[in-house]
TrEMBL record:
InterPro entries: ARM-type_fold (IPR016024), RRP1 (IPR010301). Its main location: nucleus. Belongs to the RRP1 family. It comes from Lichtheimia ornata. The keyword Lipid biosynthesis does not apply. This is Nop52-domain-containing protein. GO terms for cellular component: nucleus; preribosome, small subunit precursor. It is found in: Nucleus. SUPFAM superfamilies: ARM repeat (SSF48371). Residues 224-249, 257-267 have a biased composition (Acidic residues). Residues 278-294 have a biased composition (Basic residues). The lineage of its organism: Eukaryota, Fungi, Fungi incertae sedis, Mucoromycota, Mucoromycotina.
């Protein structure tokens, strides 16, 4: 066991793959502390580590235990330094691609779950790095040189298929988290799509090419729908901002229409008043003329 300080150490594979769950859990906790120190590991050490973790996961039988361990192993990525991120994932994918055909059908689903968590936490790591262009490109290159290699027949097709199936789904979970937290997303979607674009064109497996094309087409359609929805929301906001002005204009118009009849009535009444007063004046004039005659 490699040690850094009196309490932080890198567990051996036999501890990670122990029969007793307590021993395995203790080894994983020890590994997490070790990684948090930022210690650099050689490629050989990383491969040994992931070989031990592969069997650590193999030994987890109950669904809740499997889910918790997949979460713990995936979250190890978040404690890695930027220099260790890619080598750590390279070792993960190399071990799982090598060991994949030895996984029995009963255990296959739980390993698919582990792959999903690793994809999720890899995207989360990149998001925490503000989708750094260099880091993102390095990650995409790692995928294309590893599990998504378009022409390497040693890489299991079922792993390729699974990555294609969950790729954008896991990405969207991260983007949704960022939106909920009000973060600005500086994501180069073309760079993110590169592994699938390459697979859709260069994969020697016809099924891989087809699945990659379908995933990209579905993503394009979703982006269009999101764009249309966003445009519609913007238009609704504009309409809502114009409503008060329209209401005010309508109210002024109604007020104007209501006031017009009153003016007409006044105009009609005024001539009548002037007519009656003129009659009175004529009557008084006649009386005065009679008096003069008398």
């Amino acid at each position: 066991m490699d040690t850094i300080g009196p309490e932080v150490s890198l567990p051996f594979g036999k501890e990670l793959a122990a029969n007793e769950k307590k021993t395995r859990d203790k080894a994983v906790r020890s590994l997490k502390k070790f990684i948090a120190t930022g210690a650099d590991l050689s490629k050989s050490d990383l491969l040994k580590l992931w070989k031990g973790l592969f069997y650590c996961y193999w030994m987890s039988d109950k669904p809740l235990v499997q889910q918790a361990l997949a979460q713990d192993l995936g979250s190890l990525l978040l404690d890695l330094s930027t220099d260790s991120f890619i080598p750590f994932l390279e070792a993960f994918w190399e071990i799982h691609c090598t060991q994949w055909h030895g996984i029995d059908r009963i255990r296959l689903d739980k390993y698919y779950m582990l792959l999903r968590r690793m994809i999720f936490f890899a995207f989360l790591y990149l998001a925490n790095q503000d989708w750094n262009e260099e880091m993102t490109e390095a990650y995409m290159t790692m995928l294309l040189e590893g599990p998504m290699h378009p022409t390497d027949r040693s890489k299991p097709d079922s792993i390729r298929y699974h990555i294609i199936d969950i790729y954008f789904e896991e990405l969207d979970k991260i983007l949704e988290l960022q939106r909920e937290q009000g973060e600005e997303i500086h994501l180069d979607m073309d760079a993110i799509k590169r592994p699938l674009v390459v697979s859709s064109k260069d994969a020697i497996n016809k099924v891989t090419r087809k699945k990659a094309k379908e995933a990209l087409a579905a993503r394009k359609q979703q982006e269009k729908e999101d764009e249309d929805e966003e445009k519609e929301e913007d238009e609704n906001v504009e309409d809502a901002s114009e409503e008060p002005e329209q209401v005010q204009v309508e109210e002024e118009k109604i007020a104007s229409e209501e006031s017009e009849p009153e003016q007409d009535v006044e105009e009609e009444v005024k001539p009548k008043k002037s007519s009656s007063s003129s009659k009175k004046r004529k009557a008084s004039t006649k009386k005065q003329s009679k008096k003069r005659k008398l």
